[in-house]
Write a structure and sequence with these properties.
alpha+beta, 8 strands
Length: about 325
């Protein structure tokens, strides 16, 4: 850098030694600033009440204000995996593969659903919502998580209860041969929490009656759980899969963590026998539509292993139904 000699207003040249001193002083000042010397300070606006504001160094522009938490929020961290008892791939191999035909004779009304089997004033939809209500969702005191799209809400009217294996799909896979009682039991299956789940109405209607070869949850994080639920439900009810459906399930299981698996598949409820149940004889053929029926038959309480026991009769899960 070139520095001109300082000339006073009189026009006389400053002595060489004095000029050199001035140059050194200027250079020293520049070096101090370059090495992190005191930055210029700015004064913040005065505080409320008229007291002077503190002098502060300039900062980055303030961050944008955080918007209020909406009713619908992002999904929380995934819940811990269920206990592993059988590899999902092995469970998939247990499904019977058969071509799927058309659905002559199908009518949704053949599957009577949203019933109140235990007579407590809470129908199947109400029971699922009660079982899936959560208190760990971001921004919500209580609410529900829709795994298909990862959204959560505190408004149950935004939710549908989805038959993971749709009624029409079940019909095509073997339910066409069932009697009315078994179709009713399938449509209101509270014996396995994976059979019926609360999801946003939009994703439920997008899914409709399609199988995994035609539809997968838009939230890929849910693929393992969805495939697990689909396989378990079809095994539980003895339903078949078609080749494309099986291939899609196998694809969805690729990359699932080691913990992704099918938990024990309870036996599907048996259709009611002609007499409507008894005092405990009749083995697996005994079926009580609700606890009122079990009590009327003199069978209550019904314990695990007793004829007619099923999880839907045991609401607190302690192994004793209709207490």
């Amino acid at each position: 850098m070139t520095t001109a000699l300082y000339r006073p207003a009189s026009g006389r040249r400053t002595p060489r030694g004095v000029a050199l001193g001035l140059v050194l002083i200027g250079a020293l000042a520049v070096g101090t600033a370059a090495c992190g010397g005191t930055e210029p300070q700015v004064r913040s606006p005065a505080r409320a009440g008229g007291s002077p504001a503190a002098t502060v160094a300039p900062t980055q522009p303030p961050a944008a204000a955080t918007p209020a938490t909406p009713t619908t929020t992002a999904a929380p961290a995934p819940a811990p995996p269920r206990a592993v008892v059988a590899a999902a791939g092995a469970a998939l191999d247990r499904l019977v593969v058969e071509p799927e035909g058309y659905r002559p004779g199908y009518d949704r009304g053949l599957f009577v659903h949203w019933v109140d089997d235990d007579g407590d004033g809470c129908d199947t939809r109400c029971e699922v919502l009660a079982a899936e209500r959560r208190t760990d969702l971001p921004g919500l005191t209580v609410g529900w998580l829709s795994i298909y799209d990862g959204d959560s809400t505190d408004d149950s009217s935004e939710l549908d209860i989805d038959h993971v294996v749709a009624l029409a799909e079940a019909w095509d896979s073997g339910a066409w041969a069932w009697d009315a009682a078994r179709r009713r039991a399938f449509a209101n299956d509270l014996g396995d929490p994976r059979a019926l789940i609360a999801v946003t109405a939009a994703t439920n209607r997008s899914k409709s009656d399609r199988d995994p070869a035609q539809w997968q949850p838009p939230n890929r994080v849910a693929w393992c759980e969805f495939a697990d639920a689909w396989i378990a439900t079809k095994l539980r009810w003895g339903l078949t899969v078609d080749p494309a459906e099986r291939a899609a399930l196998a694809n969805m299981l690729v990359g699932c963590p080691a913990g992704a698996s099918v938990t024990p598949v309870p036996a599907a409820p048996a259709a009611p026998s002609g007499g409507g149940g008894g005092s405990g004889s009749g083995g697996a053929g005994v079926y009580y539509a609700n606890c009122t029926a079990a009590r009327a038959a003199g069978a209550a309480p019904v314990r695990v292993g007793d004829p007619g026991y099923r999880p839907a009769l045991d609401r607190d899960g302690d192994g004793v139904g209709c207490e």
